[in-house]
Fold KIB1-4 beta-propeller domain-containing protein.
Amino acid sequence: MARKAAPLGPATAGQKRKAPSLCPLAAARARVPPPPASGWASLPTDLTLLVACRVLAADVVDYIAFRGACSGWRVCTPSPRDPTLRQRHLRPRGWVALCGGDAVRPDDAGEVTFLHTRTARCLRVSLPELRRYRVVGFTDGLLILLHKRDTTVRVLHPFTRVAVDLPPLGPAYHEVVRNRISMLGMRAAVCDASAAATIAVVVWFPWTPGVLSAVPFGQVWEVYPPNPLGPVVAHVPDKFGRPCHCEYHLVESGRDMLLVVQHENVKREGTEPWQCYAFAMFRVDISDRWRLFPVISLGNQALFLHMDRCLSVSAKDLPSIRSNSVYFSVFLPDHVVLHSLSDRSFERPTMLCQVHNMKERIRPSVRPFTIADHLLTYCSHREWARGLMFHEYNGVPRCFDNLWKKIRAQDSQLRIPRTIRGDTNGKDNFLYKINYVSSVHKE
């Protein structure tokens, strides 16, 4: 007789309930598939690339942080490390280097603090390799370095640490410069090389006519002596008085190139020395034979002008900066002058911040420094490289013995190797080519 099935109801008294037939817990977990990724890390590749492109268009530093957020984003997005440093969208454009104001050179500190001119964001970047170099220039946030022992030129991306090395300056120094003080005051800039898919560096020296240029991976320097018969950038109208009293500045402002002419004010509406200056601005149309179009107003922009470099920033992004104005310098006890293009007024924003009167110290350093102080110091490379604020030390009095002793000790670290003629190793086999430098001419 077949046995009847046990009822499904509750067990009667004295009857044991059979335990359910289950697998061990560990084994059961091993067979359960992991849950799918969720949140931002699970974005499809096409959406991740779209977000990455928009982040990169805004700032390469944010793009680097975006790729570091998760491994999936890093795998499906291109690397920001450009070994040639030629791709401009991968350069830290919009970042300027700040000065500490404590007479500490960036190569001694081994770090540089950067400010983003659109967001006022600050980043302190540790660069220990700077201790072997002098910082001689900036272009699009790239650092141009000069080795203190062998005068090798290097271009460094401060955020990706990519570096491009160029030939040493020693042979060019013995052939063209021959002035150590001029070598210590050298300036440099990065540009694109027309003959190769790489960058080039142009170098110029105070009190030395001519400009040197070099490309990586080859010991070739070209010498460009100034010549009035050479090609010109633009023809400036001849209505600004004596040429010797005019200064010309090329400034990249937004997507335009501006030519700013600082000249004498014929009307002389003020009695102070800085009130004898006036400014004329032109937009340079590169596509139309470098024609000049007058510019009456800068809008929200403000210009910082100096002989080393010039800068255009938006007062909308930096509220402490006055819009439609020009910040410039004069060699007077009050070194900084603010000129408003709207009402033609002049101000001395650093009048109460001077630490000396060109003879002796009159007050301690006034802190904190303003953004305008930092931007004008960035445009004056000599003070920035010494760790000094421009409005405080544009001219160091001779009575500052300790400071001058420190400056001389820092300058003595630069060694220029001797060049022996006939070196069979090819180390001094540099080719010099004569060309003409582009310039600004008056009609």
About this structure: The two ends are 124 Å apart (CA to CA). The first helix runs from residue 25 to 31. Confidence is low (pLDDT under 50) at residues 1-29, 421-443. The first strand starts at residue 95 and ends at 97.
